[in-house]
Specification:
single chain, 9 helices, elongated
């Protein structure tokens, strides 16, 4: 075998290597199929759905209205009739804590309704956002229950914890819903970085207030739950300050 044959064999080997090295291996083909399926599934799952955002807003308003009504209905009068003024006064004193907590819960639910309309005006939606909004509404719907628990069993710290967890979960789901809508471009008026920071800080303040209320209720007095009445005051002052600076 002369040098010319050896050179021809080398060239043929090089051509074969170039030809077959470009073909992906079986493992690579399987990985590509998996990646392609995952990407197609992800794109389908996150694609916009043909649902009018106004219907979701209507559902949200209906649930907020129902929750506010249930809070008031929780203040039902007893079935027995009071025969003396002293019995009636005793009844009023007995329901005073429940009445106070109901007012607090009503203010909180009203604040969450305002935040929902102010911060998450959407022009489109998809399945993940739809379920985030539903879970948020589910958390709102539990507030009458946790309000009743803390009104009847306010002497137990666990009742305070249940109410605090309900509020914390509601705030967390709202922030998650807002962040997802912001990242997906669903918001009608996409907030600036300063507006986004203002929204996050507002809810972080409410979170911190919730933690403080639970700790003070446990260590000092159950009357510290009325600190939640500061939520609309804080929100209003922060909103005025933000608009003035803007």
């Amino acid at each position: 075998m002369d040098e010319e044959d050896i050179s021809r064999i080398r060239n043929l080997t090089r051509d074969l290597q170039k030809k077959y090295s470009k073909k992906p291996s079986i493992e690579k083909k399987v990985d590509n199929i998996k990646t392609s399926f995952y990407q197609r599934f992800k794109n389908s799952f996150e694609s916009d759905v043909d649902i009018d955002p106004g219907r979701l807003l209507g559902l949200s308003d209906g649930i907020f209205g129902m929750v506010m009504t249930l809070l008031v209905f929780g203040m039902a009068l007893p079935e027995i009739e009071f025969l003396t003024y002293g019995d009636f006064i005793g009844f009023i004193y007995s329901i005073a804590p429940t009445f106070g907590v109901t007012v607090v819960s009503f203010i909180l639910v009203s604040s969450f309704w305002i935040y929902h309309h102010e911060f998450v005006k959407i022009n489109n939606l998809n399945i993940p956002y739809l379920w985030l909004n539903i879970f948020y509404l589910a958390s709102i719907s539990f507030i009458p229950f946790s309000t009743t628990v803390i009104g009847v069993y306010s002497k137990f710290f666990l009742a305070e914890v249940i109410f605090g967890i309900n509020i914390m979960v509601t705030i967390f789901l709202f922030l998650l819903m807002f962040r997802y809508a912001y990242n997906r471009g669903f918001l009608e008026n996409k907030p600036s970085k300063d507006e986004k920071k203002y929204i996050y800080n507002t809810f972080f303040i409410i979170m911190g207030l919730t933690v403080c209320v639970n700790l003070l209720d446990f260590k000092v007095s159950s009357n510290f739950i009325y600190l939640f009445l500061l939520v609309p005051v804080i929100s209003t002052l922060r909103d005025i300050n933000f608009r003035m600076n803007s």
